[in-house]
Amino acid sequence: MAGLNLKHIYKVYPNGTKAVNDFNMEIEDKEFIVFVGPSGCGKSTTLRMIAGLEDISAGELTIGDMIVNDVEPKDRDIAMVFQNYALYPHMTVYENIAFGLRLRKLPKDEIHRRVTEAAEILGITEYLSKKPKEMSGGQRQRVSLGRAIVREPKVMLLDEPLSNLDAKLRTQMRAEIAKLHAKLNTTFIYVTHDQIEAMTMGTRIVVMKNGFVQQIDTPKNLYNYPGNKFVAGFIGTPQMNFFEGTLKKKGEQVEINFDYSDAKVTVPYSMLYKVRPSFLNGEKKVVIGLRAENVSLDPAVVKASKAKIKVKVSHKEELGNQTLVYGDINMEGDGYTESATRIIIEAKGDTEFASGDVLEAALDIDRVHLFDKETEESILPRIPEHNFVDCDVKGGVLNFLGNSMQLPPAISCVDGKYELLIPSDAISFKGDVEVNVVSSENINGKTLVSFELGGRRMFAVAEEEVKKGKKKISVDFKRISLLKDGETAVEAMPMNVTFKGKLIKEKVVEEVEKDGKTKKAKVVKFFFGIGDAKFAAPDDMANKLISAMGVKKAFTEELRYECTPYDLNFDETGISAEVVDTVDYGKEKFAVLKIGEQTAYMLVEGNASGSVRLVPAIDKLAISIAEKDIRII
Ligand code: ADP
């Protein structure tokens, strides 16, 4: 029994294929994790790295509390079940299951206990004396499961174990594997390309595509809150409807326009508060996603709905408990071809439709999914990144939603009307503006707090739960932006400082103790070359970089170091920079730095100016291989 931790795991095959990129996940003990995605997305490679059958190119893998990157597969305390059962044909089922234990020279009675127990759990006791060829595919897969169980592993790895079985048996074995997981109380990691298998078995699912993790979540959350269009389309049958269009905010209303069609619906902005504000200008293209069950043809629902569109019906699929009606929101469309206007509707009741009928359909906008057409990322995140409200500035005072806040000297702009963007993690529940907290919900380890201010719903990300009712907030002004006619008038302070450099190896003469005597000797020391300075690199950090890049490239690859404005200090031994200004955000002051081409910020106590030298907090640095954009530390 053990949890696993995968930190910045990469796999680059010798031929250059980047099969897995920056895989990060903490797996808790006893979870049932499923890796799912189309063929070639890197699921098996990840599983094989966990098993130790493939080297890890970069990153750190922990099983239990041990880093296992360099631990042999046999010493990792895992067991693996493959698609092809790989049983020994000349051995009986008993011998097949016992084989690994015999190799390990376990006592005979212990082997017998484990084999009979496993056979009992898997319901194959009566086959123990048979040979594999006398058994069906499902029974053989049980034997190979048995072989894994008897090792009593900390982690069970299963690579498409059911794909050789026919559909009915697959469904049955799915249930049995889920039952087995409950019985064994062990961590399971299961690879499949079948989304239904993933949805029915996993406690959490990792959706992968082209070597990148797309989303990690529970089946329910993947279905309800897909993070991008790929996940939205991959999970669920029939596939989610995707339309193209634009969103235009007009006061407190938003117009949703569908391209290649006359369809248009207008909904209150309150339904779309979480939408990324830059997509509300009526120009940026979006993908509008609606599942078949979130569109209705039911006359009563249509009558009551404010979001109606016309659909030309083409055909339907009767699935027994469900009727799928196919149509098009473009009156020229055929309803058969998958397109940006084709629609599939789950029809309830037994209303009859004829091909060619034009009907009204109601869209459940509460359930709409919206994606950036270009990047395909969700623009309607579960945790909204920003609050977007109208405001005005007068004499250094910011007025919004009936409240006034004094702006710090760092923010100077001409008086007038603006749109205010407040990041949801720039609001804290200490301050002097009174709000009414409506809900506090835990989402993937973060707390999303919804509150009302001046009749508007707003969102904040808090460290911990905030109780409902009256609370006071403050806003971190260095994080806000002000927009005028869609253009940025006041920019948020950049929270990232970037340096370039290399890892350096030097031999230095040091006094070392040997046999109770102090002697001079040459020892190898590592340094981070950053800009025009050099800092001692702790051995563990240097070793991580060397193991990730390989000894040959470790000292030639360009590295990118990143830290925040809070992680820099002045010191004569440091990197040269120029202080061009100091900005005052009230409680905090920041020096504005020119470091080469880059403008960066740094927290300062008093005033600073002119040429300076900077030292970053080495333990706070994030380090990446610049060219490949692979983060190592
Ligand atoms: P999946 O299990 O999701 O089908 P894999 O992990 O098997 O995908 O493969 C991921 C990618 O790595 C694919 O592009 C595949 O062609 C490539 N790949 C797999 N094994 C090797 C190998 N030994 N050498 C080079 N490329 C490989």
Q: How many domain units?
A: 4
Q: Largest sheet at a glance? A: 6 strands, mixed
Give the end-to-end Cα distance, rounded to a whole number of Å: 28 Å
CATH topological fold name of the largest domain: Rossmann fold
How many alpha or pi helices? 10
Beta-strand portion reads: 35-45%
Structural class designation: alpha+beta
Low-pLDDT regions: none
Number of strands: 40
Q: How does the overall form come out from the CA principal axes?
A: flat
**Small-molecule binders:** adenosine-5'-diphosphate
Can you give me a brief rundown of this structure?
The chain is of the alpha+beta class.
In terms of topology, how is this protein built?
Layout: E1 4-12, E2 18-27, E3 32-36, H1 43-51, E4 58-63, E5 66-67, E6 78-81, H2 93-103, H3 108-122, H4 137-149, E7 155-159, H5 167-184, E8 187-192, H6 195-201, E9 204-209, E10 212-217, H7 219-224, H8 229-234, E11 241-250, E12 253-258, E13 264-268, E14 286-290, E15 295-296, H9 299-304, E16 308-318, E17 323-328, E18 342-347, E19 358-363, E20 369-372, E21 386-394, E22 397-400, E23 403-406, E24 416-423, E25 427-443, E26 446-453, E27 456-462, E28 469-475, E29 481-484, E30 487-490, E31 497-514, E32 517-530, E33 533-536, H10 539-549, E34 559-563, E35 568-584, E36 589-595, E37 598-604, E38 610-616, E39 622-625, E40 630-631
Parallel strand pairs: 3-8, 3-9, 6-7, 7-8
Antiparallel strand pairs: 1-2, 1-4, 4-5, 9-10, 11-12, 11-14, 12-13, 14-20, 15-19, 16-17, 16-19, 17-18, 21-22, 21-24, 22-23, 24-29, 25-26, 25-28, 26-27, 29-30, 31-32, 31-34, 32-33, 34-39, 35-36, 35-38, 36-37, 39-40
Bound molecules: adenosine-5'-diphosphate.
Adenosine-5'-diphosphate binds at residues 13, 15, 17, 19, 37, 39-45.
